[in-house]
Amino acid sequence: MSSYLVLLVLFSFLSISVYEGFVILGLLMLLIKRKVEGGLLTLPLAGFVGTTVLSTAIYFPKMLVKSLNEGLFQLIYLSKVSGKEARRALTKIPYLFVLLGILGMPLLFYNWTKTGSYKIFWGGVFETAQFYTLFSFASFLIGVREVKLRGRLSGDAVFYLVLSLLFLGVVVLSQRRSYLLAIPIVFLLVLFTLRRNRLISSKFLALTLVTLLLGGAGAYYYLSQKDIRFRTLNELILGKRKLDTWAMNAISSHRYYIMLDGIKIIKSDWKEGKYLNLLIGHGIRSGLYLPHEKSPKSWQRYESIIFVSELIERGIVGLLSILLIFLLAFKKFLSVKLSNGREVVYLIAFIPLLVHSVASIFTFFWDALLPLYLFMFKFGEKAFEGN
User: Fold this and answer.
1) 273 within domain boundaries
2) Of the candidates 183, 170, 6, which has an alpha carbon nearest to the alpha carbon of residue 101?
3) Dihedrals φ, ψ of 79, to 5°?
4) What angle do CA 57, 39, 323 make, to 5 degrees?
5) 23 with 76: CB under 8 angstroms?
6) SS (H, E, C) 313-367
7) Are 134 and 351 a contacting pair, CB within 8 Å?
8) Could you give the CA distance from residue 87 to residue 84 in angstroms, rounded to a whole number?
9) Is residue 287 part of a domain?
10) Which pLDDT tens digit goes with each residue over 80-134?
């Protein structure tokens, strides 16, 4: 499974179609070899997958095939992985992330300057921010590992730490708020974990926090000049604008109106006694058949805040399952015990799911790369098993 994970990461970057085909291959291997093994997230994941498929089959069967993608693909998490395999793979993955980040830069620059599209091999600006967030964390972890192993700030360590900042700059230029929100939160948790395990000094911690603070201030200033969402938020903070409907929609990219539509559907379900809908939802992409009053009728989902978005599609069971995944994932990460500096890079296994969890608060939990994030988390569980 070590080689499979490396290839899955590689294909996720190069081609979404090949990546999804590789996920299907992994699921087939799981069925044929019957090497199934539960993990920390098995129970809530069952709730997420079950409500995704069941609610869609009952209320929106036209999307049943798509629900298999959004639901069953996550079961790759159940693959059996040994501790040795996990540690071998997680030693390579951060370096692969960094390599992909470096190789993607010329393509990103070309697309941005020549075609005006901020993208790499597939997807768009959102996927670019998604990948380079992970590349930044991977490069940072390698830099910390180099500092710890060499006992000083070596040339290699400086290279990876600076590269981490460069990758972070790519995310800032993308102006994707989901990841700009997730990065400082997860970064602080990474620093806490490293400090708790005595793998970084007080001086290194202080220097990193100052860099993060100055970088964050610079990024906010840049975004408040370039992006109407941040500009409006800045005007609200400075008292130059009142908090009204226009401001709410400007800051949230019209998610405020979407949220109001979503809340109305939930209230309607309660009043009309649609308790099964409240329990398991209306099915994925249910915005295609449910009413829209304030939000665009062409929108497939009520993408606003996760408590509304997921409650409509997956109901109370699905929403609670997602929240439990969040809780267990963060709890596991914060309880990790690192034996030595070499194990620092193993933390990359948890970071994708943690970043995605925070980023999904104002979108949706499902993502095309969610199977990869869950699979990597399983490797993290196994790598630290017994520590």
Assistant:
1) no
2) 170
3) -60, 145
4) 60
5) yes
6) HHHHHHHHHHHHHHHHHHHHHHCCCCCCHHHHHHHHHCHHHHHHHHHHHHCCCCC
7) yes
8) 5
9) no
10) 999 899 999 999 999 999 999 999 999 999 888 888 888 888 888 889 999 999 9
Residue-wise pLDDT tens digits, 3-13: 899 999 999 99
Contact 24, 254 (CB under 8 A): no
The Cα 79–Cα 97 span in angstroms is 22
- CA dihedral angle for residue 322, residue 327, residue 329, residue 330, rounded to 10 degrees: 140
Any residues with CB less than 8 A from the CB of 246 and at least 6 apart, and which? none
Closest-CA residue to 67 (of 280, 283, 311): 283
Q: Which among 137, 232, 124, 227 has a CA at the least distance from the CA of 182?
A: 137
Q: What share of the chain is helix, strand, coil (3-state, %, to 5)?
A: 75, 0, 20
Residue 251 lies in a domain: no
Q: How far apart are CA 253 and CA 259, in angstroms?
A: 11
Task: Identify whether the C-beta of residue 269 lies closer than 8 Å to the C-beta of residue 296.
Answer: no
Per-residue pLDDT band for 181 (boundaries 50, 70, 90) equals confident
Residues 6+ apart with CB under 8 A from 119: 108, 111, 125, 127, 128
Copy the structure tokens of residue 240.
């130059």
- Number of structural domains found in the chain: 1
- Which residue type occupies 351? I
Average pLDDT estimate for 162-191: 90
Which residue in 99, 31, 133, 32 sits closest to 369, CA to CA? 133
* CA-wise closest residue to 44 among 325, 379, 371, 312: 325
Contact between 299 and 292 under an 8 Å Cβ cutoff? The reply is yes
Range of the domain at 229: 2-235+305-383
Greater confidence, 151 or 191? 191
Nearest to 91 by CA among 343, 312, 335: 343
Q: Is residue 254 part of a domain?
A: no
Concatenate the DSSP letters of all residues of 220-246 into one string. HHHHHHH-HHHHHHHHHHTTSS---HH
Residue 235 token pair? 């005007």
Structure token digits, residue 247: 């401001």
Closest CA to 295 of 308, 284, 282: 308
